[in-house]
Amino acid sequence: MSEQKKPLPFVANFAAGAIAGVSEILTFYPLDVVKTRMQLSTEKSQGLFGSFKTIIREEGFGRLYRGLVPPLLLEAPKRAVKFAANDFWGKTYLGLSGEAKMNQQLSILTGCSAGATESFVVVPFELVKIRLQDKNSTYAGPMDVVRQIVKKEGVLGLYAGMESTFWRHLWWNGGYFGCIFQVRSMLPKAETSQGVLLNNFISGSVGGFVGTLVNTPFDVVKSRIQSVAKVPGVTPKYNWTYPALVTIFREEGPGALYKGFVPKVLRLAPGGGVLLLVVEFTLGMFRKALGPPYI
Question: What is the DSSP letter of 29?
Fold first, then answer.
C-alpha cells in the first residue's frame, strides 16, 4: 500500500493562493470595472460591449484599469486566506464529523465558512476599489480614498458594506466549493498530470459559474452600498443587504439584481478555472521541490 502524502505546510497553501489570485486579476480586471459600472447604474443596461465602448470612448482605455492597485494588493492575502481557510475548515469539519474524506455537504459547509472568514479581510480593499471604479469618482488614487473616508467617517468607515460582503462571499464560496466537489466526482478519473489539470479547470469553471449565479444579487447590493459616502444624519437608500434587495427588486425589477452578471460570469467562471488550475499546479511544484513525504 502506498504511503499517504503529507499535507503541505500553511506557507505553501498561502503562496499558492497568492500566486493564483494575482494571475487571475491581471487577466480579467477590465471585466470587473465594467461589472461595477453596470451594477451602479439605475438605468437600462447598455450591455457588456456597449459598456466597454462607452468607457473607452468617453474616458479612455486606461479607465478600464482604474482601481487596479487595491485589488492587486488584496489578491495575495485574499486568495491565500480563502484557500488556507478552506484547508483549515475542511480539516476541522472532517474531524468533527468523523468522516474519512470530504463529501459534498462538508464541501459546501467548508466553502461557506471560508467565505465568511475571507470577507473580514477584503472589505476595505473592495470599498476603495468601488469608489475608484465609479464613473463619477474624483479621487486622486487609492490613498486619497482612504484619507477622505477616515477623515469624514472614521476608521470604521473603511468597513462600509461589511454585512453585504459577508453574504456575497458566503454564497459564492458555498456554491463554488460545493460545485467543484460534485463536478470532480462526475468527471472521468484523470490518468495523467495534464488530465488532472484539465479536470481542475473544468470543475473550477463550473464552480465559478454556479457561485456567480447565486451571489450576483448580493454583489449588486454591495456595490450600491459601498459606492456612496455616508452623510451624518442621513439614512442611506441602500444600507442593509436584504432590505436593499427588496428595494432594487421593487424599483427596477428582478433583472436589476443581475446587473453585471455577464462580465462577472465571464470573469469568474473561467477565472475560477484558472484560479484552481494555478493553485493545483503551484502546489504540485511545491510538492516536487520539498520531496518526500509531500509527494
Answer: H
pLDDT 10s digits, 204-248: 888 888 888 889 999 999 999 998 888 777 888 998 999 999 999
Measuring CA to CA, which residue among 74, 65, 70, 69 is closest to residue 17?
74
Give the residue-averaged pLDDT of 11-26.
Answer: 81
On whether residue 295 sits in a domain, the answer given is no
Q: In whole angstroms, what separates CA 115 from the centre of its chain?
A: 9
What's the one-letter identity of residue 282?
T
CATH of the domain at 56: 1.50.40.10
This model's pTM is above 0.70: yes
d(CA 177, CA 212): 12
Here the cell at position 255 is 433583472
CB 161 within 8 A of CB 168: no
Q: Report the SS3 class of residue 45.
A: coil
Residue 221 is part of which domain span? 10-290
Q: Are 126 and 39 in contact (CB under 8 A)?
A: no
Rounded to whole angstroms, the Cα distance separating 91 from 50 reads: 46
